Amino acid sequence: MQFGRSYEEFEVGAVYQHWPGKTVTEYDDHLFCLLTMNHHPLHLDTHYAAGSTQFGQNVVVGNYVYSLLLGMSVPDVSGKAIANLEIESLQHVAPTFHGDTIYGETTVLDKWESTSKDDRGVVHVETIGYKQDGTVVCIFRRKVMVPKANYLEARGGEQPGRPVPVPDRNWPGREPAAQG
């Protein structure tokens, strides 16, 4: 399974559909609100939301939807990133409710080589999130500094820092590969 990409693997215009989607539960929404100290009743108080808002129900806090989509994009976009440089724009364009399933996809808008170091580049992407019925709920653009292949090779390849399992009394080690 691929986890992120090197600079050379990005192509302008490529679209990465992130899988799987995530069904947002009331628990997810409330926990995120409580962890981030966002106590707005639109997100936490069912009685308030039912009688005092245009939606008639709790709305999932937007920063959770954004964070979910950002996380969904990591295996396709930033899993090998050196740095997230900028969130250029963030738009919440429709509400998400408890029980909605969020899907995401990212389009590569542009890319350019670093002017200061020859082992990396910058990728400019747009991610959209949409519900099970196709309604787009969130759009954001960001710039990510990603390594070139030579950067990865110099630091241990595809899985740098991954240890090798050590045989001991609980595990004797792998059998030698069959010669054929």
Automatic annotation (TrEMBL):
Region (Disordered): 155-180
A Pfam family: MC_hydratase
Top-level taxon in the UniProt lineage: Bacteria
Alphabetized InterPro entries for the sequence: HotDog_dom_sf, MC_hydratase, MCH/BMMD
Segments forming a coiled coil: none
Protein's UniProt name: MaoC family dehydratase
